[in-house]
Amino acid sequence: MWNTALQVHMFHAASMLAIAALAAFTPSRGITFGWILLALGTLAFSGSLYFRAAGILLLPRGVAPAGGMLLMAAWLWIVVALLRKDPK
Protein backbone atom coordinates (compact mmCIF):
# COMPACT_ATOMS: atom_id res chain seq x y z
CA MET A 1 0.00 0.00 0.00
CA TRP A 2 2.86 2.37 0.81
CA ASN A 3 4.48 1.76 -2.60
CA THR A 4 1.22 2.45 -4.43
CA ALA A 5 0.78 5.73 -2.56
CA LEU A 6 4.38 6.68 -3.27
CA GLN A 7 4.13 5.91 -7.00
CA VAL A 8 0.89 7.84 -7.44
CA HIS A 9 2.26 10.72 -5.37
CA MET A 10 5.52 11.00 -7.34
CA PHE A 11 3.85 10.67 -10.75
CA HIS A 12 1.30 13.35 -9.98
CA ALA A 13 3.87 15.64 -8.32
CA ALA A 14 5.96 15.55 -11.50
CA SER A 15 2.82 16.08 -13.58
CA MET A 16 1.84 19.06 -11.46
CA LEU A 17 5.24 20.66 -12.07
CA ALA A 18 4.86 20.15 -15.82
CA ILE A 19 1.31 21.52 -15.80
CA ALA A 20 2.43 24.55 -13.77
CA ALA A 21 5.14 25.22 -16.36
CA LEU A 22 2.58 24.84 -19.14
CA ALA A 23 0.20 27.21 -17.35
CA ALA A 24 2.98 29.82 -17.15
CA PHE A 25 3.13 29.92 -20.97
CA THR A 26 -0.53 29.20 -21.67
CA PRO A 27 -2.52 30.86 -18.89
CA SER A 28 -5.99 29.38 -18.57
CA ARG A 29 -8.56 29.14 -15.81
CA GLY A 30 -9.30 25.60 -16.93
CA ILE A 31 -5.70 24.47 -16.54
CA THR A 32 -5.45 26.21 -13.17
CA PHE A 33 -8.63 24.57 -11.91
CA GLY A 34 -7.44 21.19 -13.22
CA TRP A 35 -4.17 21.67 -11.34
CA ILE A 36 -6.09 22.36 -8.13
CA LEU A 37 -8.18 19.22 -8.65
CA LEU A 38 -4.97 17.27 -9.26
CA ALA A 39 -3.45 18.57 -6.02
CA LEU A 40 -6.56 17.75 -3.99
CA GLY A 41 -6.88 14.30 -5.56
CA THR A 42 -3.24 13.47 -4.92
CA LEU A 43 -3.53 14.64 -1.33
CA ALA A 44 -6.70 12.63 -0.71
CA PHE A 45 -5.65 9.44 -2.49
CA SER A 46 -2.00 9.20 -1.50
CA GLY A 47 -2.58 10.70 1.93
CA SER A 48 -5.27 8.16 2.72
CA LEU A 49 -3.02 5.29 1.63
CA TYR A 50 -0.06 6.69 3.59
CA PHE A 51 -2.20 6.85 6.75
CA ARG A 52 -3.51 3.32 6.25
CA ALA A 53 -0.03 1.92 5.56
CA ALA A 54 1.24 3.56 8.76
CA GLY A 55 -1.60 2.00 10.72
CA ILE A 56 -3.32 5.31 11.41
CA LEU A 57 -7.02 4.86 10.67
CA LEU A 58 -8.19 8.43 11.19
CA LEU A 59 -9.76 8.87 7.76
CA PRO A 60 -12.98 7.24 6.55
CA ARG A 61 -12.62 4.38 4.07
CA GLY A 62 -14.04 6.38 1.15
CA VAL A 63 -11.30 9.00 1.04
CA ALA A 64 -9.00 7.04 -1.31
CA PRO A 65 -11.75 6.35 -3.90
CA ALA A 66 -12.84 10.00 -3.71
CA GLY A 67 -9.24 11.05 -4.29
CA GLY A 68 -9.03 8.73 -7.28
CA MET A 69 -12.19 10.27 -8.72
CA LEU A 70 -10.70 13.73 -8.23
CA LEU A 71 -7.56 12.62 -10.09
CA MET A 72 -9.61 11.31 -13.02
CA ALA A 73 -11.72 14.48 -13.08
CA ALA A 74 -8.55 16.60 -13.00
CA TRP A 75 -6.99 14.86 -15.99
CA LEU A 76 -10.24 15.13 -17.95
CA TRP A 77 -10.58 18.81 -17.01
CA ILE A 78 -7.00 19.57 -18.09
CA VAL A 79 -7.39 17.78 -21.43
CA VAL A 80 -10.64 19.62 -22.16
CA ALA A 81 -9.04 22.95 -21.16
CA LEU A 82 -6.11 22.30 -23.50
CA LEU A 83 -8.39 21.36 -26.37
CA ARG A 84 -10.64 24.38 -25.81
CA LYS A 85 -7.77 26.79 -25.29
CA ASP A 86 -10.08 29.05 -23.32
CA PRO A 87 -8.72 32.53 -22.62
CA LYS A 88 -7.81 33.90 -19.21
Strand content: under 5%
Largest sheet report: none
User: What is the average per-residue confidence, as pLDDT, rounded to a whole number?
Assistant: 90
Rg for CA atoms: 14 Å
Characteristic key phrases:
88 residues; mainly alpha; 3 helices; 81% helix
Brief account:
With 88 residues, the protein is an all-alpha fold. It contains three helices and no strands. The longest helix has 25 residues, at 29-53.
Describe the structure.
With 88 residues, the protein is an all-alpha fold. The chain has one domain (2-84). The protein contains three helices and no strands. The model has no long low-confidence stretch (mean pLDDT 90).
Write the layout of secondary structure elements.
Layout: H1 2-25, H2 29-53, H3 63-84
Helix pairs in contact: 1-2, 2-3
